[in-house]
Amino acid sequence: MYVDIDYLDQYQDFTYDHKKFAELPDLMSETQKDHKLHWTLPLDPVIEANEKENPVFSDGYTKDVFLKWSKSVPMTERHNPPNVPTDKDVMYGKEMPPGPAVFPDFFKNVTHVWWKKWINYMRNDLNLTFDGLWIVSRENTIL
């Protein structure tokens, strides 16, 4: 079984909409057990850059897992959106979700650990017993 990204809460990775998809954890578990169905959930490796409301971003920012501007690009030419932290040279873009977004730097080992942590959060804390993930890849826009 595949679901589209509509299962996400406001299109934020490592969440699900508890209103529209309230029964998703039970449905996944029951159909796996009773009908041997396999579930694949999509994730878009774009994280909404909202420190106050998105623990995934806060955790990633603290662990320094996001793509950065080259030191050769002056601050005046970086075109970062307003009200985002800039002390770590993080490069911001725009994508779903609608706010400023950041992009994990998967060339860093720490990013792999961070990404796995949040996948485990989906399994253990949100109780989503998926069998696979579909990492959505599409063209992203850098601001």
The number of distinct structural domains comes to 1
- Helix/strand-derived category reads alpha+beta
Q: Under the CATH scheme, which class?
A: Alpha Beta
Strand order of the largest sheet: 2-4-3-6
Number of strands: 6
Distance between the termini: 35 Å
Low-confidence stretches: none
| Percentage of residues assigned to helices | 25-40%
CATH topology assignment: TIM Barrel
User: What is the correct CATH architecture?
Assistant: Alpha-Beta Barrel
The CATH superfamily is known as Glycosidases
Give a summary of the structure in a few sentences.
This protein is an alpha+beta fold and 143 residues long. It is 26% helix and 12% strand.
What keyword list fits this structure?
single chain; 143 residues; alpha+beta; TIM Barrel; 4-stranded antiparallel beta sheet; two-stranded parallel ribbon; 6 strands; 12% strand
Characterization of this structure:
It is a single chain. This protein has 143 residues and is an alpha+beta fold. It has a single domain, classed as TIM Barrel (Alpha-Beta Barrel), CATH 3.20.20. Helix content is 26%, strand content 12%. The chain has three helices and six strands. It has helices at 24-35, 55-63, 109-124; strands spanning 40-43, 47-48, 93-94, 100-102, 132-135, 141-142. The strands form two sheets. A four-stranded antiparallel sheet has the order 2-4-3-6, with no helix packed on it. A two-stranded parallel ribbon has the order 1-5. β3 and β4 (100-102) form a beta hairpin. The radius of gyration is 17 Å and the shape is elongated. The N and C termini lie far apart (35 Å).
